[in-house]
Amino acid sequence: MTDSSIVYTVEVLHPSTRYTLQELCEISRLTEDVVVKYIDYEVIFADGPNGIGFTHRQLDRLMKAYRLQRDLEINTSGVALVIELLDSNQKLERRIRQLEKRTTLVEE
Hints:
With 108 residues, this protein is mostly helical. The protein is 61% helix and 0% strand.
């Protein structure tokens, strides 16, 4: 019988923590060149105080963008467009839910 145990190391990230570019690269395991390219295409941006630092939300966007590029084999500008469309879709879905709640309240 063989021991096929896998040990994972995880780091718990607090949602309000701000990350430097270097920390973002370290956490995401992406090179600075890759991350800067996503910044140039406005996929992610520094949104901390005075435009310094990246939030957990930006880290999530970075990882989503990287997975899209890797899995779908699309270029960075294509990833930026997909992320923008996903954001628009999410806003529209939120608006629909708000309107549905209003409609439900009026009907009651």
